[in-house]
Structure formats: structure tokens, C-alpha cells
Task: structure prediction
Amino acid sequence: MNYFDKDTVVRLIETAVIATLALTLFVGLRGRILLFAQWAGLPRLALAPVRIVLRYGILVVAAALVLGLWGFQLGTILALLGSLLGLVAIGFVAVWSVLSNFLCTFVLVVFKPFSIGDEIELPVDNVKGRVVDLSLIFTTLQVSPEDTVLVPNNTFFQRVFKRRAGQRTSGLGDQLRHRTAAATGEVS
Result:
């Protein structure tokens, strides 16, 4: 009794090979990107968007290959994907401010215009304080013993600010690495 003809068996084997390669790349790429971040001295969070796009891009390509292998029209799949990407683009516009702050955090960590402990003044906004924290969206300034101000990270690319080095400073990358280690339970 033959349940499958020769073409079906070949397609099943090809599907298994594509799925195996895609999953191997999907899992292996995470470790490689984290090793690169460690080698480059970057916090893990700095390469998170790159890692996500690459890993899930591999799965999308693999799915398209498998569907094409089984007779689905790639043109139809691409049209559907185009529609989905259009919806995603509309969603990105809706959350542009958050994405802008996230990307600006990456630039702040790489180019280090200020450090934890430095005093920052934004003259246009009449804000002055000591940098006490950096998150993916905000930089926290201690403006008085009782008050802090959260400044969106993209502000540092839209306005002039003054910086005075503090007595005890630590890099923004160190701050994010410490934050990441605390969140994952790792000990530095």
C-alpha cells in the first residue's frame, strides 16, 4: 500500500530540510548576535531589533519556500505579505515616538554624550538635573532631592543641552547592562 506518491515524498523531504535549516538558523542566530554584542561591548538590548528582524525574517522566508513547494502561488503570498506589511507600517507610524526613543537610546549608548552622574541642562525646557537612570525610553534626571524628571531620549537629538561631568560617572551602556542583568537575574 502506497499512501504517498514519489512527488509527495520528495516534497515532504524538502520541507523537512527547509524547516530544519530555518530552525537551526533561528536558534543559532540568537547566540551569535549576543556574542557579537558582547565582543563589541554593546548591551544586549542595543541589538535586540536586529536580532528580532533577522530571526523572524528567516522564518518568513522558510514559510514562503515551503508554501511555494506545495503549490501555493508566491505572488498571492507576496500580495498578502505586502498587505500585512502595510498594516505594520501604519502601526509603526502610530508608535513612532516610542520607536524614536528606543533608537535614540541605542545612539546614546554608542556615542556617550553623557554618563550616569553627569549634570544635564536643557535650557529651552528650563530643566536641569543629574542623570540617575537610563531606560530604553527615558533618561531620568534628579532635579531636587525629592523630584525626578523623565526626559524622552529623543529629546537629546532635538534640542541643545549642556553637560557638566559629574564626580562619579558610569557609562550609559553599563547602566543598560546592569538593568538587563537585574531583569534576567544574572550577577555582574
Notes: The chain has two domains: 6-94, 111-184. The chain has a mean pLDDT of 82. The first helix runs from residue 6 to 40.
